[in-house]
Amino acid sequence: MVWDKRMAKIAVTGKGGVGKTTIAAGLARTFGSRGYRVIALDMDPSPNLASSLSCKPAEAAAITPLVEMEDLILERTGAPPEGGGMVFKINPKVDDIPGRFGISCRDGVRLLVLGSIRTGGGGCFCPANALARRLVDHLSGTTDLLIMDMEAGVEHLGRGTTRTVEALLVIAEPTVKSVDAAGQIARLAHDLGITRIFGVVNKVTDGKGEPFLSRLATLGVSPLGIISFDPAVQQADEEGAPVYDLPGGEGIRARIGEIATALEERLGLFGKKEVRRGS
Ligand SMILES: Nc1ncnc2c1ncn2[C@@H]1O[C@H](COP(=O)(O)OP(=O)(O)OP(=O)(O)O)[C@@H](O)[C@H]1O
Ligand SMILES: [Mg+2]
User: Fold this and answer.
1) For the chain, how many structural domains are there in total?
2) What are 146's strand-pairing partners?
3) What predicted TM-score, i.e. pTM, was given to this entire model?
4) Across the 279 residues of the chain, what is the mean pLDDT of every consecutive 10-residue run?
């Protein structure tokens, strides 16, 4: 697919618990503070991106994932979220949804919580996912960066929302198992035609990240960087506070900033930043 670089959709993926949400939030906030228009999409069936983005607590608490909004899905597609065997519209109206259901968070980031519908262990080609897919397409025309915090594993790759991304960021922990799982995601993504697949090794201790980054490279993942295990991240989690706003959060902020810069370079986003800053 031809990519004109006016915007980029970046999906953050990986096995459960590797740090997808922490990193997706950090990237969204970094890019937001650099002047990009950023929309963060929470695509996890158990969404929790709002707290890392420091959205307004009352607004965050009131969020229902879009794919669970039965009335809205019925109104827009003509069928309930999981279809119920009914014919439904695959191109429902979505242009009012970001304004109605998006919430404003720190660093200028806007958050939309889509969630994800799974039936029988897999994704469904159903009204809820048709609405989600249509919304992602629509958002592509309205923002600079779409940062998608995906659910763990590979199922989302079959759902159409991931297929159209310009870049996939696969997160792995510094274990052979985790890196190989990242490689599996990369292989499937590659088969779907996703060409820009980048990797980050997260929670590295004792500076032992390089061999895992090299292993990622042999599995078709272009290495982007390493993030050390940072007790401040864990501590913030225990306190239920976003690490990026806490004293002690400087370290992880700086590391994510480097990953963001590497992404800017690899995706050629520099021009956009300069234009926006200069305007
Ligand atoms: N660099 C890091 N240093 C220390 N702890 C980290 C780091 N990155 C993430 N964590 C911790 O790892 C745990 C999982 O992080 P996070 O929720 O971001 O992962 P996830 O991949 O989104 O998980 P899930 O698959 O459940 O959505 C959290 O407790 C978080 O605080
Ligand atoms: Mg998560």
Assistant:
1) 1
2) 9, 39
3) 0.93
4) 73 95 97 95 91 91 91 93 87 93 95 80 75 90 93 76 87 96 93 93 95 96 96 91 92 96 90 48
